[in-house]
Write a structure and sequence with these properties.
Elements (H helix, E strand, L loop, with lengths): L1 H21 L5 H10 L3 H14 L4 H13 L3 H13 L9 H14 L3 H14 L6 H11 L3 H14 L3 H13 L3 H14 L4 H10 L5 H14 L3 H18 L2 H14 L4 H17 L3 H14 L6 H8 L14 H10 L6 H6 L13 E4 L2 E4 L8 H9 L3 H14 L2 E8 L5 E8 L6 E7 L6 E2 L1 H13 L4 E6 L2 E2 L1 H10 L2 E4 L1 H14 L6
Helix pairs in contact: 2-3, 2-4, 3-4, 4-5, 5-6, 6-7, 7-8, 8-9, 9-10, 10-11, 11-12, 12-13, 13-14, 14-15, 15-16, 16-17, 17-18, 21-25, 22-25, 23-24
Length: 519
């Protein structure tokens, strides 16, 4: 009976000990999170600093330190801490790289560090191609810097999720300025239907009519001229009118348009002078020499050196049978030149107000191709081909760093590194981070000429594991397995071959951690 009681007590001790061993470790991260949420900043800072003494590269602690700096409005420190977290060589399942990148991108944007902001937002799309709000940022930055061909695909992404008027307008402007005028006109018609009294929409629409919608543009001008009263805008609108009427060949209608403009703008000498000059040209074109002579005398009295006024006197005198001398320029040449540059370059974009003076080298992130601008592979959402190419391009040192990062990603600690003689191969010994101390050997192999692993290759690796007294072996490679090699791996239960999609995840994680090493 005593023996049974002792056995039961021993069993209870074992079970209790097992339960203690199975208890979750104290959740320091959760504590810090609650401290920050409740405004206990000093306690949070003390706990973070204590934990960082033993884990200086812990990305979660670094990120919390950044959050703490944000709460204290120490934004420069927040940037430093977030950058350290993102380039940390330690991988943690608790670290939210996406959220940290988002915070950092917003800080860069607010500090006017636009190129770094763009790089961050592109990396966010690498982590999550469907990330909410990020295409908006890229679209707005590309539009503001005049990179409209790059802005278009991101604006399309934004509009597919949320059809907002400002982004629809930006899309219309971008389409127009990149040669897709009819699509832009259609979008402006949709916007004007939504807001019939929006005079800015009517202005952009009228400016877009410069390509082949001359009559629609001409008919929109009277309401615009009555709404926009300042001289610079009035002058631009009158020039639009000159352009539309000339393209349509409506010379008599243009005379009425100019006469009305002169009467309406009697208090604006510069505008009156310009309108009279064009009125003179039209009268001469129509061979109405008496009217031309009357307008010429008014212009000459006001400013005898105005534009081509002196030369035009010769053509007025053509009413005589014998003009005094032959002019250097023909009237047709003067007339054509006067009507040629009435629309300033990129007028629609200039009127839209989207442009801002940001210094961003988009060529760093995008390449020009036959089909347009494409984001460079290192900033594009990952795929197997790009990841495999990146992996094959790693130097021996980069392979070693990649191996160390991958071990951390899979829950191991590095013990020592062994460089094998053959090129493109690095082996690293590791052990599990938890109490089991599972020993493993990581073999990182670039298979450039033989992209297939044979069963002999796997058998030799198993033999190496046994000799080195390792419990597990990991082969990280771009190669595929032969059918017999796959069977050997399954039978061994001590070898994991990481290739394909999983290797892509490790490469993407490694590339993201390298991001700040260039700085």
């Amino acid at each position: 009976m005593l023996l049974i009681i002792l056995l039961l007590l021993a069993l209870a001790v074992i079970i209790f000990g097992s339960l203690l061993a199975l208890r979750p470790r104290e959740d320091h991260y959760g504590k810090i999170e609650k401290m920050l949420e409740s405004g206990r900043e000093e306690e949070a800072e003390e706990l973070i600093e204590n934990l960082r003494k033993t884990n200086p590269d812990d990305p979660v602690l670094l990120s919390f330190s950044g959050d703490l700096a944000m709460q204290k409005a120490d934004f420069n420190k927040a940037v430093d801490e977030y950058e350290k977290a993102l380039k940390s060589p330690v991988y943690s399942t608790r670290f939210n790289a996406h959220e940290t990148n988002r915070k950092l991108g917003d800080l860069y944007w607010n500090f006017g560090r636009m190129e770094e902001a763009l790089e961050t937002f592109l990396y966010l799309l690498r982590l999550d191609p469907d990330a909410q709000g990020i295409p908006v940022k890229i679209a707005e930055l590309a539009t503001a810097t005049g990179n409209l061909e790059i802005a278009i695909p991101y604006l399309e992404k934004v509009l597919s999720l949320e059809n907002t008027e400002p982004h629809k307008l930006a899309y219309a402007v971008s389409l127009f300025e990149t040669g897709k005028q009819n699509e832009a006109i259609r979008l402006m018609e949709e916007l004007m239907a939504l807001q019939p009294d929006n005079m800015n929409y009517k202005l952009y629409f009228t400016a877009m009519c410069q390509t082949n919608h001359f009559d629609e543009g001409r008919k929109m001008l009277p309401s615009l001229l009555s709404y926009f009263s300042d001289d610079s805008m009035s002058l631009l609108l009158f020039r639009m009118g000159l352009y539309f009427h000339s393209k349509l060949g409506l010379w008599d209608v243009l005379i009425i348009f100019l006469d009305k403009g002169i009467q309406d703008k009697l208090g604006s000498p510069n505008i009156i002078r310009e309108l009279r000059y064009y009125l003179l040209l039209v009268y001469l074109k129509l061979e109405k020499f008496q009217e031309a002579s009357r307008v010429f005398e008014i212009l000459k009295k006001d400013d005898p050196d105005y534009r081509d006024l002196a030369k035009l006197k010769i053509f007025i005198d053509e009413i005589d049978l014998e003009p005094t001398f032959k002019p250097q320029k023909s009237f047709d040449q003067i007339f054509t030149e006067a009507f040629a540059n009435l629309f300033p370059q990129r007028l629609v974009y200039a009127l839209s107000g989207f442009q801002k003076d940001y210094s961003v080298s988009f060529e760093k992130f995008f390449s020009k191709t036959d089909s347009g601008w494409e984001v460079k592979p290192e900033y594009a959402p990952p795929n197997l081909a790009r990841s495999s190419a990146a992996f094959l391009g790693y130097s021996v040192d980069e392979l070693a760093a990649f191996g160390g990062r991958s071990m951390s990603y899979l829950g191991y600690n590095a013990v020592s590194k062994h460089e094998v003689k053959e090129a493109g191969t690095v082996e690293i010994q590791a052990e599990k981070k938890d109490a089991s101390k599972l020993k493993a050997l990581f073999s990182i192999r670039q298979m450039k000429n033989e992209p297939t692993l044979s069963d002999i290759f796997i058998s030799n690796f198993i033999h190496e594991l046994t000799e080195r007294k390792k419990d597990m072996g990991y082969i990280l490679t771009n190669a595929s397995l032969s059918e017999q090699a796959e069977k050997t791996v399954l039978d061994s239960k001590m070898v994991n071959v990481i290739t394909g999609q999983k290797l892509m995840e490790l490469v993407v994680d490694f590339e993201n951690s390298k991001r700040f090493q260039r700085k």
